[in-house]
Amino acid sequence: MSSNPSSLPNLLVFPEDCQLTRILNWAIFCDHLKSVAHSTGLLGYLNDNILPPASPPPATGPVNALSIPPAPIAPAPTLINSHSPSIKEWELRDGHLASIIYQNIKDPRSIRVTEDMSSNAMWMRFTAEYKTNLAATQALAKEWLQQFKYVPRMHFKDYFKQLEALHKAANDIGCLVQDEDLHTRFLTSLTSNYLWILQTH
User: Fold this and answer.
1) Which residues, in sequence order, are CB contacts of 54 under 8 Å at separation 6+?
2) Do residue 35 and residue 86 come from a single domain?
3) How far is CA 150 from CA 9, 111, 138, 145, 161, in A?
4) Could you report the per-residue pLDDT of 21-62, keeping only the tens digit for each?
5) In terms of domain of life, where is this protein from (predicted)?
6) Which residue of 7, 83, 141, 164 is 20 to 30 Å from 1, comparing CA positions?
7) Would you say residue 67 lies in a domain?
8) What distance in Å separates the CA atoms of residue 81 and residue 40, rounded to the nearest whole number?
């Protein structure tokens, strides 16, 4: 990335597990996108805090064929996170962030995201698509964790492998299940045959 405070970052491809595929990794995608937007100075475009500037009014007054029009003065470039960019700067920066978002959605058509949308319009579109169903999905993921009990004669390795998969799936959608919760769930599911484990923990 350039050290120039008004330059744009490279188009970024997120790690595979951070690219938006479906609701099951929605929370990870959101966190990663907001982190990237913040670190690159483009968060204001994502959350609509940096609005497109109004077009300048057309020139008025009498036209004198003999007069020489003044040379246009190029505005000084603004910082990338400036709240008063020029029209060209706003379009370039917002389009750049929109391109980052678009290329990190596995199937943008499935959520009706198109390349010509602004970054905030994209954000609002997939927020509306997923946020409504997120609470129900989180509740279901927690229920799967609660229902997953240790079965006697099951290998501990297999149990913890499946438990970790459920744990990751729950956290990927923002459930924030702590490791201590998993330990408690495991210990309380043991029968008296495993009293030695309970006594040592």
Assistant:
1) none
2) yes
3) 49, 39, 22, 11, 12
4) 877 778 789 889 999 999 999 999 999 999 998 876 665 555
5) Eukaryota
6) 83
7) no
8) 8
